């Protein structure tokens, strides 16, 4: 999933995982609350507010499977 841990603090790591889930679901109010808690713990985010720091583009859709060969 993610490349390398961004922090040694387990609370900050948990907040970053929680934030990523909220960003993926479009829950901007929750993202702001998590950002506030991260700021209280001295963690600065790499991306803009409301953007996931680990994903810059949305995932591509699935392709349809071709006909099966017998």
Description:
There is one protein chain. The chain has 70 residues and is mainly alpha-helical. Helices cover 41% and strands 0% of the residues. It is built from two helices and no strands. It has helices spanning 10-25, 28-40. It is elongated, with a radius of gyration of 16 Å. The model is unreliable at 49-53 (pLDDT under 50).
Question: Which keywords apply here?
Answer:
70 residues, elongated, mainly alpha
Short note summarizing the structure:
The protein is an all-alpha fold. The chain has helices spanning 10-25, 28-40. The chain is elongated and about 60 Å long.
Structural class: mainly alpha
What's the order of the H and E elements? HH
Helicity level, as a percent range?
Answer: 40-55%
Alpha-carbon Rg, integer: 16 Å
Number of helices: 2
Q: Name the overall outline.
A: elongated
Quantity of strands, as a count: 0
Q: State the distance separating the first and last CA atoms.
A: 37 Å
Beta-strand percentage range: under 5%
Mean pLDDT: 77
Low-confidence residue ranges: 49-53
Main sheet makeup: none
SSE map:
Blueprint: H1 10-25, H2 28-40
Helix pairs in contact: 1-2
